[in-house]
Each structure stands twice: as structure tokens, then as C-alpha cells.
Amino acid sequence: MRRSYLDYAMSVIVSRALPDVRDGLKPVHRRILYAMKEAGYDWNRTYRKSARVVGDVMGQYHPHGDSAIYDAMVRMAQDFSMRLMLIDGQGNFGSMDGDPAAAMRYTEARLMRVSSEALLEDIDRDTVDFQDNYDETTREPSVLPARYPNLLVNGAGGIAVGMATNIPPHNLGEVVDACLAYVDDPEISIDQLIEIVPGPDFPTGGIILGRKGIRDAYHTGRGSIPMRAATEIEEIRKDRQAIIVSEIPYQINKSRMLERIAELVRDKVVEGIADLRDESDRHGVRVVIEIKRDFEAEVVLNQLYRHSSLQTSFGANMLALNGGRPELLDLKSIIAAFVAFREEVITRRTIFELGKARDRAHVLAGLAIAVANIDEIIKLIRAAPDPVVAREQLMAREWPAADVEPLIRLIDEPGRMVSEAGTYQLSEIQARAILELRLQRLTGLEREKIAAELEEIAAEIKNYLEILESRERLLDILRDELRDMRERFATPRRTLIAEGGFDHDDEDLIQREDMVVTVSHGGYIKRVPLSTYRAQRRGGKGRAGMATRDEDFVSQVFVCNTHTPVLFFSSRGMVYKMKVYRLPFGSPTSRGKALINLLPLQEGETITTMMPLPEDETAWGDMYAMFSTSTGGVRRNKLSDFTRVMSNGKIAMRFEDEGARLVNVQTCIESDHVLLATARGKCIRFPVSDVRVFSGRTSVGVRGIQLAKGDSIISMSILRHTEFSTEERDSYLRYAAAQRRAENGGNGDENGNTEINLSAERIAEMAESEDFILSIAEDGVGKRSSAYEYRITKRGGQGIANLDLTRSGGKSTGVAAVFPVEAEDQLVMVTDGGKLIRCPVDGIRIAGRSTRGVKVLDVAEEEKVVSVTRLSDDGTGAEGDDEALAGEDVEGVPQTDGNAAAARESGSVEDSVDPEGQVEDDPSDDPEV
């Protein structure tokens, strides 16, 4: 059983399913073409019934079912199946809608010209081997002497036992050019051949997406080649667009494709289609897909590409018989095998022609001898009793060569030369030819014709010998024949190759729409269409933006497009990427979905930073991502390092200490500054350029600040930097402090700017560039300080004092948060006891860098602030939704409504300026602090 099955398998592989690399044909196709050639059904003859062809093939060469033979014949006559049709069919030979061909008794066929003059040419000149047919009653060719690489031009498909083949069709002109390039340079690389043959050329046209699949197929023999229909978007009438499909992918059933589109519309998988109709005719394909109003045709088209066979893939598997054995071939191997085959065909044809020329020359040499010795020959023949004796006597005598000797030497026939005595002995073939010589050939004119023909054949023999002796001559013939094929049968390319990949990014399927993304302090996120929030006049009540529970509140709101990418950085050093359209869709009052359910976060892992990015990734080139860790490390990477983030995340930062965590990640540019703040009141400011750009994502970075034992980083901020001298900053700080005292009824100098020698223009410029740093201690005390007070140092130092952490009674506290703020911002502070307060930033006094500050939240003795969130009004925060942000009172702590006086009731700190310009606290204004 095993032996029988293996025999069967090899029979299927070699004799039925796989094409030969030399002529690109399976046995059934080869037998059909040869049978039609033998029967005389040539391209310039009349059509003959297909049943006659099938009968000839089945009766002589292919002992299989007539339907299998007819199906193979039909495919060779379909212009949507073959890039270069081999059979000229008359009648119904099927359609790309899947309609079958008419019965063989109705259709007629004949060979195409390319079959007669390219595939079958020279088959009668001993160019290929012949083998016995199945019953040994006749002979059939084992391969056709193809003049072009038909395997590439028309492709092939078949399923054998344990293997299959699927070779795409190509453009004849491009393939011939590739063969010529290979003949000129056998060391040519596959990449160089790809420049000549850029990809398949399907008979149905269409578009190939990208070149990766093509390169894989040409380099390895296997590759998935994405292809899609050729479409246009037309305006068929006012305010109504339609998608017009003019070319469909190769081997796609058009009727089934339309049924699938209709199913998608019915099941509401694809919305926006108003009508679907097929207007195809004999002139070409035309499918009209009408789009509903208020729908974008491009989005609907991308959805159809995703869900229907308007876009599909051709799985190239270039398996063919090479030397009688199945072999997976790359592009160069196929071309090399064909060129080697053509060399063999031309060599065998030349040897055959040389033999025929020598045979004719041999006969002519005998005739020339007879004409030269005509009297003696006539006398011998008349004296002979019968033809046999006459033939033997002609062969037995030595005949004078006379004037024929130069002609005999010219043909250079081995073993048949003139002797030293100037005589020539006739062979049996020559003697027979002389005996059959007609009397008219004895005239002077005929004698000259014999001599002329002999000289012509001698020149042919010389040419044939030169071809056989010179490979370069042989290759010249090969080149000429290839060029002839290109000039006669090549047609322009039908399939367009478009740059880009097969997979759509999902935003191609999503309507482009502005979204409001809302994130709560407790880790809930959602998106709501911006159109949901109607515009209100100034002072409006607003509307709820998220249903919050307990002490949760909206911590961040940003408006972006559905296509905007957002990076999520976690405390574990991982980065996750998600498009906005993938975020859960919600109503204005819904809570959203927990981030832990959207991202593959581990236990204890939290999202520390969410970073909306520009949709156009080319705009990321000049931007960097600055990382900071709790142990004082910083690292700078190009933002483009995070363009490709898989669904399970990507390592963004590696920690050198086990207990370290990622504190923050922010975007920056080369001219920005970094501000690091620690839990024990230290801070350091240094230029971004002090941190080199790292090429890897798994490095630990460099030291940003040298921490004291037990200290840790709690925040990192990016500050804009404007070049001012130290003297200018000190002068401006004195001026600003004096102005604040004057505003509070103190003894400030109204003309302080003249004392500090700064012009009004310079003061205005410095005020415009001024940032304020908010620092909040764990005991609820905080302050705002000008960024000018944070002097610029080198990276890696111990830093400077940022906040006086000494509490009343000599106890010390820690820092809860440090970050830049605007006067219009608001804060939400949460304690570990569950208290929550929302207050405006402008209610917190501006004080010196190393001062204590004012009481922002009244915290119990054993309680401390654990979270401070900035709510901004610049589109990246959550301002504008009083109901959602305020929540309810928590444990008796009132939620402030933005009144600055309410914040000042908790205590304030006045500033004073010493002679050296150092800003200090005046505790007399707030004994409690």
C-alpha cells in the first residue's frame, strides 16, 4: 500500500499537477496544444469544434475525463485567467462572474498565434525529447520548445499530493528584459532583476499594495502579495458620491464579491452604502457603489477593502518541476532554467539543421560529380542490365572531381573528401540521386543552379558550425529571438504597483471626528464626541462630564481626533499605545472604563503619564521624550522610537534598582529645561541638551540629581527656556516682589523698574516668558515660585532647596507635588484620609523658592496629601465641568468653587525682599505657618 501510494503521489506531482519550469505547462495543457498543432488547428486556419480537440487529446495523449481536458482548454482561452492567451476560442468560454463555459459541442477553438510561433515553433526540428504516449501507439513531446518563459508570463496553479503551486502571471516585456539582463550578466542579483520585473502583472489589472510580498516571493519562492481593486470616487449627482470599481483582483469571482458586499450592508458591518449595481459589459468591468449622504466615500471604501474581496492576497508559491523534480524556485532560478533550456533548444535545432544541410550538400556533391562526368555516367547506366547493377557500378568507380573539387572541400563533409589523385567515390545515396536525375538537370543552366545551391548550403554549414563552436554566437541568437517575442507579443502593464502595506490601520475605517477624552483620578477613561458639548456663554453652568464615585474626580481632559495616537507610560517602565478611537465610547455622564481593563497592566502597575501625540508621525522628528525615575535617573529618546508599539506594550525604561519606578515622561525639544523635584524638598534645573539622546529603550539613562539617602524623585517638569542673564533675572525678581507688595497695600516702590535698571519692554518680555512652579507639601502647605528663582545648573548635582518642610513643633514633612501652573488653573488635592479639595491656583500666593508657603488644605495631624492634580483650561485638562469636577463634600471638607478668598482664609504668607535680593518669608502674616 505504501509503495502504491507513493507511486500515485509521484504520478500526480510529475504527470498532472505541477508545471515544467521550461515551458510553464502541465502535461494536459502541453498535450492540448500539441494535438491542435498536429491536427492543423493553427491561428490562420478556421475554428474547429472543441469536442474534436478534446477527443483527439483524450484518444491519443491524455487518458482522463473529457471534462478535465475541456476545463483546461477553456482556461487557456479566457482573457481574465491568462496574461497571454494560448487558445483562440469562439463562443461562450465563461466569465469572471463564475459562469461556466458552454458545452464543448457548441464552442470552437484554434491556436493563438503566440502558441504556434512561440511555444510550438521548431518542435519538428528535434529540439525536444519525445516519449511514448500512454498506449505506445504514437509519440508526444515531453516539453515544448517555448521561446519565452511561459511559467512566469502566464503563471500556474495546482494541488499535488503534499505540495501545491501558485505562480502569479507577469508582463511578457518585463520578463523578456529580465532574461536579456541575465544573459548579459549571469551574476545579476535578484534585487537587480526586481528592478526590471517589479512584480506580477495580472490579466484583470488591479493594484498591488507594497513590495514586501513581491520581494519575499522573488527571493524565497513564497510570499503573500496583497492586491486590491482599482477604484475611483465619482460624483454621480449633486451631493451624492459613488465608488466605481473598474478592475477587480485576480481570480476573484465578481458576482460572489457583489453578494458579499450586499451581505455586509444587510448585516450593518458596512454602513453608508445606498445602492449597489453591476454595469459591466464586454468593454470592461464597472461596478457602481452609491454612497449615502453624510458618509465619506473613502471611509466606506476602506471598510470594503477590510471586509470584502475588493482587497485580497495572492499567496505565491513558486513550485515547479526542474529536471523532473519538484523544486521551490526564486525569480533568478526560473529565468536561469529557462535560459539554459533555450540554449539547449537552439543547440539541438542547429545540429538538426546542420544535419539536413549536410545531407542536401552530400546529394548535391554527387549530382555535381555526375554533371562533370555526364558522358561516362550515361554510358555506364546504358550498359547496366538493371538499376541495382548501375548503382553498384556508380559506387565502385573513382570519379574525377575536376572542377567540383573546390565545392566538395567547401562543404567539408567528414569522411567524404577528394582523394590525393583528385577522385571522388560516390555513396549509395548519391548513386540513387544520380539514377533519379531528370534529363533537364543536365542543361548548362541547371548545372549552374546545382553549383549555386551547393555554395549556399556550404555557407549555411559553415554558419551552423560557428554557432556550435561559439557560445557567444548562440547567445546572440537567443537574444534576437527574445527581442522578437517582445516586439511581437508584449503588451503594456495592466497591474499598478502602489507603495504601502496590505494592512489598513484601523483609522482608515473610522470616521474622522473630534473627541473629548476624559480621564479620572481613579483610572477611568472614555471618549465623547466634541459635538455632544454645546457651546455656552461665559459664566454658564456647564454640564456633567463624568459620573464619579466617592473621592474620584476628573483629572485630565484633552480634545483630539479619533486618529490621534496616545502613549500610556506605566510605573513599571512599559509604554502602551492606543488610538483614540479604541478608547471606550461613552455618554457625557458615563464613568468610562478602567484602564486596567484596556491595557495589559500587571498587579500594582499604574499609568503615570498619558501623552497625546501628533497624528502625523513625520512631525515627531524634532521632539524627544524625557524620562525620569524615582531614583534620580533621566533619559532622553527620540519620540520616533515609540512609533511602533505592539498591543502587549514595549519596554520604555529599565531600572537599575529593584524598587525604582517611572515617575514621569514628557515631550520636549532641544531648547527646553528639565526640573526635577524630590520628596525632601530638593530640586534641580538643567538644560535638556545635558542629557544625550539614547538610541536604545532598555538603558537606565544617566543621573539627573544626586539624591540623599532615603530621598526620591516625585516629579519631573519641562520648562520653556528664554535666554536672560542672571542679573536680569535677579532684577526682575526684585521688581516683581515689590509690585506684589504694592498691590497688597505694602511699601512697594511704584518705580522699582528704574531702581533695577530694566526697561519697560524688557520687563514685559520677561513677564511674558515667566513660568510659575507650584510646590505642595504633604501637610497641605504650598506656594507658587517664579521659575527664574530656579537657577540653571549642570545635570547630576545635589540640587537646591525648593520648599521649607519644617512644620510647627519642629516636625518635618515631605513634598507631595511640584509642577508648573498657570494662574487660570485649578487644583484637586486628595489626602490619604479621603479628603478632597478643589481650589484655584490664583488663590495660592507667590513666594520665594525656599519658603514654606500658605495653607492650601487643612490636614489632620496623622494625615497627609497623597495626590495633587492640575486642572487646566488649555484643552489638556478638565476645566469647564463644574458638576463633574466638584463632586460631593468629603468628610466635611467643602469643595471650593473657584473663589480666591476662600483659599486665602486658610492662611497666607507675605514676601519680603532682603538687600541681596533673596525672597524670604514673613511669618508675622501667618503665625500658624
UniProtKB/TrEMBL annotation:
GO terms for biological process: DNA topological change; DNA-templated DNA replication. One of its GO terms (molecular function) is DNA binding. Heterotetramer, composed of two GyrA and two GyrB chains. In the heterotetramer, GyrA contains the active site tyrosine that forms a transient covalent intermediate with DNA, while GyrB binds cofactors and catalyzes ATP hydrolysis. Residues 447-488 form a coiled coil. PROSITE patterns: TOPO_IIA (PS52040). The active site is at Y106 (o-(5'-phospho-dna)-tyrosine intermediate). Residues 870-929 are annotated as: Disordered. A motif (GyrA-box) lies at residues 536-542. Keywords: ATP-binding, Coiled coil, Cytoplasm, DNA-binding, Isomerase, Nucleotide-binding, Topoisomerase. It catalyses: ATP-dependent breakage, passage and rejoining of double-stranded DNA. This is DNA gyrase subunit A. The gene is gyrA. Residues 18-509 form the Topo IIA-type catalytic domain. One of its GO terms (cellular component) is cytoplasm. Its main location: cytoplasm. A type II topoisomerase that negatively supercoils closed circular double-stranded (ds) DNA in an ATP-dependent manner to modulate DNA topology and maintain chromosomes in an underwound state. Negative supercoiling favors strand separation, and DNA replication, transcription, recombination and repair, all of which involve strand separation. Also able to catalyze the interconversion of other topological isomers of dsDNA rings, including catenanes and knotted rings. Type II topoisomerases break and join 2 DNA strands simultaneously in an ATP-dependent manner. Its EC number is 5.6.2.2. It comes from Denitrobaculum tricleocarpae. Residues 879-891, 911-929 have a biased composition (Acidic residues). It is found in: Cytoplasm. Belongs to the type II topoisomerase GyrA/ParC subunit family. Few gyrases are as efficient as E.coli at forming negative supercoils. Not all organisms have 2 type II topoisomerases; in organisms with a single type II topoisomerase this enzyme also has to decatenate newly replicated chromosomes.
